[in-house]
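User: What would this chain look like folded?
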Amino acid sequence: MYAHISSKSNNARLLVTDPSGQDLSGDEPSNDFEGELPASGDYRVSINWIRDTPTRYTLELTVR
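Assistant: Here's the prediction, encoded as structure tokens.
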């Protein structure tokens, strides 16, 4: 799966969790995620703001 988020203010970050709730995003907040999904099931892609102000964003998501 590939996911990328962009925003004018650059304050939106991705959080990807697997069906068991384990974070697949890594230790640092990021605009990008790329990796193999280790199991079948429902994955969650969450958008978090790193500042208190919500922002408009564009999310690109590809699953193969």
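The two ends are 6 Å apart (CA to CA). If you want, I can go into more detail on any region.
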